[in-house]
Amino acid sequence: MGFFSKKQKINYDALFKEQYKSINQLTMQAQNELDYTIKESLYALIIEKYNELIGLIDKGASFDKDHFLSLRDNILNEYQKIQDINRE
pTM of the entire structure? Predict the structure, then answer.
């Protein structure tokens, strides 16, 4: 019955690094994308991933929250520009 009694410590820094690596790959893909509809979808996903990243900081990952909020805001600005282009 000891199977359920052990609590495993979550390494939020490792999760954070994996997530951030994924964000960087998606960002490069979005920047190289020529179809603005796909580009918009990629940026929406990147924003969602940044929100998850910030959540990991809140849970204990030891990274500068303000820095990653700023990065997310930059992506959000790009996303809004792409949305405007797609509406035209």
Answer: 0.87
pLDDT of residue 19: 96
> Where do we find the tokens 């809004």?
80
- Torsion sign, CA atoms 41, 46, 52, 55: negative
CA-closest candidate to residue 51, choices 26, 27, 68: 68
Q: Residue 12: enclosing H or E segment and its boundaries?
A: helix 12-32
CB atoms within 10 A of CB 19: 17
- 53 burial via Cβ count (<10 Å: 0-12, 13-18, 19+): buried
